[in-house]
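JOB MANIFEST
job_type = single_chain_structure
chain_count = 1
residues = 94
[input]
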Amino acid sequence: LFVSGLPNEVEEDDLDEAFRPFGDLTSLHLPLDRMTGFAKGYCMLEYRTHAEALAALSSMNGSKLKGKPIEVDWLCKEPQTGRDARSRSPHKGA
């Protein structure tokens, strides 16, 4: 999951506390600004299962963390299937 809108003072423990109730976090990456040491305002989370990630996304998107509204979305979109998955390259068949 990709979480944005995080306050600068957020720490990994805050994110773990907020997102752990939905399942086992297998990865949590909170980039920090090299100059200030504060969070850059976004993070990436990974759950063990799709169902856990979906529960977190559904519950946490639009919620507040440390008083600031956050957005939660899929970091990687699911691959397209069927007709939309066809190549749209202008060189196809050339």
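[summary]
The longest strand covers residues 42-47.
The chain has two helices and six strands.
exit_status = 0
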